[in-house]
Amino acid sequence: MTKLTLGSHPFLLGFDQLERLVERTAKSENGYPPFNIEQSAENTYRITLAVAGFGEDDLSITVEDRQLIVRGKQAEAGEDRIFLHRGIAARQFQKAFVLADGVEVAGASTENGLLHVDLKRAVPDAIVQTIKINKG
């Protein structure tokens, strides 16, 4: 018996990369830094990451192959600092989110130790498209 996968189903044309995207995202999932995802309007979303201790220069946001990637890396603290207790995480991180076709980054901002990344879905002009058949 042959196992039918999502990418090989005959009615789902062009979805063969979807399985790879899901697998890649599942492998990269960890709990740091914590984040929220909100839908702020019908076609807009906001991802908020808790990035206490990270400055704007310590953070980077890129879109690579339909993945939104947020990276954080703090500059090394001087060795002259002696911590009696260190409860604030200062480790580097990389967080990836898969973006659907038509979803674009509208902007990003920091506020009170939070990084906000705003996303917007482009609404197509026409939902129904008529295809002309050429005579062969």
From TrEMBL:
Could you say which residues form the signal peptide? none
Key word Protease present? no
Q: Which CDD domains match?
A: ACD_IbpA-B_like (cd06470)
**Where is each SHSP domain found?**
26-136
A Pfam family that this protein carries is: HSP20
Q: Which UniProt keywords apply?
A: Stress response
Q: Does the keyword Translocase apply?
A: no
Q: Which domain of life is it from?
A: Bacteria
- List the Gene3D superfamilies: 2.60.40.790
The UniProt entry's sequence similarity note says: Belongs to the small heat shock protein (HSP20) family.
Record PANTHER family: PTHR47062, SMALL HEAT SHOCK PROTEIN IBPA
Name of the protein in question: Molecular chaperone IbpA, HSP20 family
Q: Which organism is it from?
A: Litoreibacter albidus
